[in-house]
Specification:
By secondary structure, this protein is of the alpha+beta class. The chain folds into three domains: 159 residues, GAF domain (Beta-Lactamase), CATH 3.30.450; 138 residues, GAF domain (Beta-Lactamase, 2-Layer Sandwich); 173 residues, Hypothetical protein af1432, CATH 1.10.3210.10. Helix content is 49%, strand content 15%.
Length: 520
């Protein structure tokens, strides 16, 4: 009996040893990529370094990184080992890489020539013989596949589950870099979770530095979910690291005079050991700090310190990309607002109309349960919905009385002018429907509107929202030809147009929003 128990225990220990060896190998590759990130931040230079390191880690013969060209429905090689002319382009619907991107799944192929999806043209052109393939997609912030990593010909034969894990880690890193345009918890949180597990600690945290307020704000703070933590730079270990840029390894927090016990007293948590490092950009400026708390067994070691050093550059890239995107987004939004204001400025009486329509449209959309991404698209369309009025005569726009038939026909042309002008703008992929949405806000459900004479479901739903927001704003604002109406009067007029001009659900959402906005 004892011999049987002993055999089981030995088997368990052997499994644990194998797991530890596997984890150590993963951490070694993780550290290598982390070192690359700390040395080189230029993306064009960084990608070859990452790809070579990835290829080495799985013992493959070649590696390639493809990026999506959505306009041409192609994948183009950003980096391709072993190919002199790296301007490789592949039709998205051809080949295993295209299949990987379309299915958004890792592909592990034993023999490429045994699958009907393999495109043999590149092999025929280069004389290379592809056998095994491992391919993984990476994604943008909105979950769309924007490219893929491809590894060719495992030297020992077949790519393993361990290799799939490794390529998924690199895919996540590239996804993190691609998602810099939308810096969110989910970009960094998996990295912190892995770090906490790898260092055998209880909690991990990432704080961002706000130099103006002289505080650190929590991005990830395990154990404090749902709370926004602000840390004064003059208090605590994290503040000390942010100010000095020093790495700190504390074995007993309560014996260190720099430790601030306030959070422990509030939460009942007992901090023992702390490992905390600054997060720096390429110029050496401190962006924040990363820390782990309470090593479960023993004290934090140099190996733990190496892991934090490897992770910090990855988080720095995400932060810098997010800051850059935020600045670009603010600049882009300010340009849109200036464009809207330039139209409103044609007539001082209508100044601010586009901004108010955007506000009302967003309020309606939230009442209807729209997500913030769709609300953002609607907001842009609302800001630009009247841009075609740049081609309308001032004398007609400012006319105090009723328009003649010819004048009305002239002013109706502003929607087509809006479509033509906005169609020439190069919008980000997310906003590509803005010209159509903006130019359909005068269409009616019964087809009696103007623009393209659309009706019912032919009209984009966002355009239906703009129609209600636009008419409500116009009715409740003073115009050359009449005084402003009350909100109640405006809602009565809108109600008269339900099912002919307007969607009743949208009007009800506008009412709900308005009453919340103006409870009196």
């Amino acid at each position: 009996m004892n011999d049987s128990i002993s055999s089981v225990r030995i088997a368990e220990l052997e499994r644990e040893i194998r797991c530890l060896k596997s984890e150590n190998h993963r951490l070694k590759r993780f550290l290598e990529i982390g070192k690359l990130l700390s040395i080189e931040r230029d993306i064009d230079k960084l990608i070859p370094l990452i790809m070579v390191e990835t290829r080495k880690s799985v013992e493959a013969d070649r590696s390639t990184l493809f990026l999506m060209d959505l306009d041409r429905s192609e994948l183009m090689a950003k980096y391709a080992e072993g190919v002199e002319d790296r301007r490789i382009r592949i039709d998205l619907k051809m080949g295993l890489v295209g299949l990987c991107v379309l299915t958004k799944e890792i592909l592990n192929i034993t023999d490429a020539y045994d699958t009907v999806h393999f495109n043999r043209e590149t092999d025929a052109e280069t004389g290379y013989r592809t056998q095994s393939i491992l391919c993984a997609p990476f994604f943008s912030a909105d979950g769309q596949a924007v490219g893929a990593i491809e590894l060719l010909n495992k030297r020992s034969g077949l790519f393993t589950k361990e290799d799939e894990y490794k390529i998924s880690e690199v895919s996540r890193l590239l996804t993190c870099m691609a998602q810099g345009e939308d810096f969110r918890r989910e970009v960094i949180e998996p990295l912190v979770v892995n770090l906490r597990k790898s260092t055998d600690s209880e909690r991990g945290s990432v704080f961002l530095l706000d130099k103006d307020q002289k505080k650190l704000s929590s991005t990830i703070a395990e154990g404090m979910e749902g709370e926004d933590i602000l840390v004064d730079l003059n208090l605590g270990i994290a503040g000390y690291v942010a100010v000095t840029g020093e790495e700190v390894n504390i074995q007993d927090a309560y014996t260190d005079p720099r430790f601030d016990q306030t959070t422990d007293r509030k939460t009942g948590y007992r901090t023992r050991s702390i490992l905390c490092l600054p997060i720096k950009n390429q110029a050496g400026d401190i962006l924040g700090v990363i820390q782990v708390l309470n090593k479960r067994h023993g004290i934090f070691t140099d190996s733990d310190l190496d892991l934090l050093r490897a992770l910090a550059p990855q988080i720095a890239i995400a932060i810098e990309n997010a800051i850059l995107f935020d600045e670009q987004n603010q600049q882009s939004r300010s340009i849109l607002e200036v464009l809207a204001a330039s139209i409103d400025a044609k007539d001082p009486m209508t100044a601010g109309h586009s901004l108010k329509v955007a506000e009302y449209a967003a309020g309606i959309a939230r009442e209807l349960g729209f997500g913030e991404s769709d609300i953002d698209i609607l907001n842009v369309a609302a800001l630009l919905h009247d841009y075609g009025k740049i081609g309308v005569s001032d004398s007609i726009l400012k006319k105090p009385g009723k328009l003649t038939r010819d004048e009305y026909e002239h002013i109706k042309q502003h929607v087509k002018c809006t479509q033509n002008i906005l169609s020439r703008m190069r919008f980000m992929r997310k906003y590509r429907n803005v010209p159509h949405i903006a130019s359909c806000h005068h269409e009616r459900l019964d087809g009696s509107g103007y623009g393209s004479g659309l009706k019912g479901h032919e009209i984009p739903f966002m355009s239906k929202i703009l129609a209600v927001a636009d008419v409500f704003e116009a009715l409740t604002a003073e115009r050359h030809y009449r005084c402003a109406l009350s909100a109640e009067e405006a809602f009565r007029i809108l109600a008269d147009g339900i099912d002919t001009q307007f969607d009743g659900n949208i009007i009800r959402a506008m009412k709900d929003y308005w009453h919340k906005r103006s409870p009196d």
